[in-house]
Amino acid sequence: MFGKQKISEHKIDTLIGKETVMNGNLKSKGSIRIDGSFHGDITAQNVIIGEEALVQAGINCSNVILAGRMEGNINAEGKLDIRATGVLIGDAKVGLLSVEDGATLTGNCKMSVKEDKRLSTEKNVGAAGKKGQDQRQK
User: Is 98 within a domain?
Assistant: First the structure.
């Protein structure tokens, strides 16, 4: 659902239009698209923030597409996709992160760690790694 599609191609259950200003807590089991202004907290399956939107909120969801301005923290179990026009001022905890050229991310981002058997430890450094360490110590 959240590949490199146009934002308008996603199924939307709730829409906050361009001329709408909303304050409060918003909860949905479906997808929410915000093109206006929202202040508060959002809990949903998917959140799409349009290019002209201003969102000042905490978001808990599965996936986020950010093309507008978001001020606050995002907790997305799945993917955070920051488009070229997107601005995130806040922290993000995500499963997967995609940031297009031109996007802005001001804050910290933590991606869920999936098991990666390639991670090395001091005990597992091979001969090439040891040789490199020996060279640096000289």
Answer: yes
| 62: Cβ contacts below 8 Å, ≥ 6 apart | 45, 46, 76, 77, 78
Domain that holds residue 57: 7-137
| Residues 35-54: tens digit of each pLDDT | 999 999 999 999 999 999 99
Establish how many alpha carbons lie within 13 A of residue 84's alpha carbon, considering only the half-sphere containing its beta carbon: 4
Residue 96's nearest CA partner among 120, 118, 80, 119 is 80
Number of domains present in the structure of the chain: 1
The string of pLDDT tens digits covering residues 75-87 is 999 999 999 999 9
List the end-to-end C-alpha distance of the chain, in Å, as a whole number.
53
**Single pTM value for the model:** 0.77
Q: What is the CA radius of gyration of the chain?
A: 19
